[in-house]
Specification:
homodimer, alpha/beta, six-stranded mixed beta sheet, 23% strand
């Protein structure tokens, strides 16, 4: 029995104003090709299929095209749950017809204790739900944390679980100690969102979505698939792919299989002049780039100049600012300077130039005559 | 062979700020009940299932629930085309799975010459397309009118049609002479949108959507189903329902079957005081009402007062204005009056009061002293 575990596709994602749909279509083609070789018994997609609850029509078409190939053309059963980015009602649309082809979409808490059985293995689904939704579902106001909410759900599932079987949980949540990325939207604001690992002990295997790092957690039975692509510059150099889970008797093997994207995210540091004259080492000019550059404050619209050479430049940070902060170690040191000195040093750091004599006169006038009320 | 013809459901429609979803759910329940009795061989929905290309989740759920009952529970084949209000890509989502249960969604010009055969009858589909889309599809810039566009499509269909069969066209367009309603969005701006009746002669039957009046056109083979509900006050007193089309040998019978909605649209004319004291004849206090009232200019926020009694009041017109226009038959008559007389008469008409002596003095001052430059 072979199960493929993927998740966090975030179709329709826009990163710094750039739609990643083309890259998503490319990587999904790679995924489909791999599935031709893998010939899995089922594919699990653990939530966040879309990046937004109002996906645009291109994202919808890409999902449908991909799922159509996997399910109707290649006849692979699919289990999908909704994540915190998905609109449940929209994702669920058509599910009653889809089930007839073993394409299962689960978005409702009502279904969590009804496993989907494939080749004798029971897949339980816990789509993303807010603490409030779980409170409402169990009519239990005492649930105020994710830990309590998930424990409640699992205790409920436990009543109907068959321990003789291999039981797999599919969820979209944060396990304690999991490594975060910037592209994950918090599940709630102001509450600890993580759930302890041993909460899930009743399962032989837990296939999760939400955290984007494929090795987010170090556990022998809980795994994140990781996201389809690098979705923030905090994920630079992070491999992305899917997990191949092989189950034989009660032995479960889990292996991460990387996929090669069309473009990666890359951070490039150095001097502006070196960047613009292509003297900086860049892995792939087509990559989505975040430049962190020094000595560029004299340039008008440096982003435009960079984009003329590196068209997929998505971000630019003026590294001089960070340099500044290392000169002055604390506010106290700065306060030792005269106002005039602070302004002059600031100007020099930012522009790499000193004040002209006209600027000097103006500064004197403002500081001495105007602000301090002295006579001209 | 029994075919049910419906269309222009406009799910998610908002009329004067009021969502009609509850009424739409009610009437669709009636429709489903009727289908239990009718036991049709197929149901045709001729476009505009949604009111907008971005339907909200409640509208999506209502469509899915309705279609689920008709198709999966009652096992009735369905043919749906997209109208000018529908977003093709969204409506089409899932269609490959749906077709396996004889639920056919057609949104593409590519499919227009591929009939759906049910019980030996060929259903051709012509989803709504703009003139530009049809130009592009045929790579023919000479197409500049709806007449040319539809003729081109039908000539293309004609190449593959089997005249031995009974051939039915399902379309979403305007036939010449069709009665319009205010709730239909024009297909194009600035172009005649109607198509001549004899363009369709190759078909035994044409089932149309777009015009909301179920008797929009007087033809022996072309029919509009009419909309699911009254969607504008221009449709007051208009029956709404579906068409039952019975085909035996080459005999085709078509009959309009009305459904009873939860609320209708109703226009109420009279005096404001009579309305507010419930002295006006109103068919149903729950109806969506458009009041056209006289003698209300002295009232602050009359709409609020009316809504306290008639909670589904959607529109209010001050009828006094229209009354005025009937007093003065032409501009010329008005010009015979002195300025002072015109102003006094206008004030009296609007407020049902005469000017106070202070107002009279002010008017005199403005007209004689200020405007005409006389001395005070």
């Amino acid at each position: 029995m072979k199960v493929i575990h993927t998740g966090d596709w975030h179709l329709g994602k826009i990163l710094n104003g750039k739609s990643l749909l083309e890259d998503q279509a490319y990587i999904l083609d790679q995924f489909i090709n791999s599935m031709h070789n893998e010939q899995p018994d089922v594919i699990v997609i653990a939530g966040d299929l879309y990046d937004t609850s109002y996906p645009n029509k291109e994202a919808i078409q890409l999902l449908e095209k991909t799922i159509n190939k996997l399910n109707l053309e290649m006849h692979i059963p699919l289990i999908i749950i909704s994540g915190n980015h998905d609109g449940k009602e929209r994702l669920d649309y058509g599910s009653r017809w889809f089930e007839r082809s073993q394409f299962y979409i689960r978005t409702r808490l009502e279904d969590m204790n009804k496993p989907i059985s494939i080749n004798g293995i029971d897949f339980y689904t816990m789509p993303f739900a807010t603490i409030n939704e779980i409170q409402d579902y169990f009519s239990d106001d005492s649930i105020t944390t994710h830990q309590q909410a998930v424990s409640k759900c699992l205790k409920y599932i436990q009543q109907s679980i068959n321990n003789e079987n291999i039981n797999i949980l599919i969820g979209h949540l944060t396990v304690q100690g999991g490594i975060r990325s910037e592209s994950e939207r918090p599940l709630t604001i102001g509450t600890v969102e993580s759930v302890e690992e041993d909460t899930f002990n009743m399962f032989d295997k837990v296939m999760l979505g939400h955290l984007h790092h494929p090795f987010s957690i170090n556990s022998d039975f809980i795994n994140y698939s990781g996201s389809l692509l690098q979705y923030s510059f905090s994920e630079v150099n992070q491999a992305k792919g899917y997990r191949r889970v092989e189950i034989e008797e009660h032995q479960i093997k889990d292996q991460f299989i990387p996929l090669k994207p069309r473009r990666e995210l890359e951070v490039v540091e150095g001097d502006y002049e070196d960047a613009i004259h292509e003297r900086l080492a860049i892995k792939n000019k087509e990559n989505y780039l975040h430049f962190k550059l020094k000595h560029m404050s004299h340039v008008t619209d440096p982003m435009m100049h960079l984009k003329q050479i590196y068209k997929n430049t998505l971000a630019l940070t003026n590294q001089s600012f960070e340099f500044n902060t290392s000169i002055y170690q604390s506010d106290e040191e700065i306060q030792k300077f005269e106002d005039e000195t602070i302004i002059k040093k600031f100007y020099e750091e930012i522009t790499d130039e000193t004040l002209t004599s006209a600027q000097n006169d103006k500064l004197n006038y403002i500081l001495n005559d105007f602000l301090n009320g002295g006579d001209a």
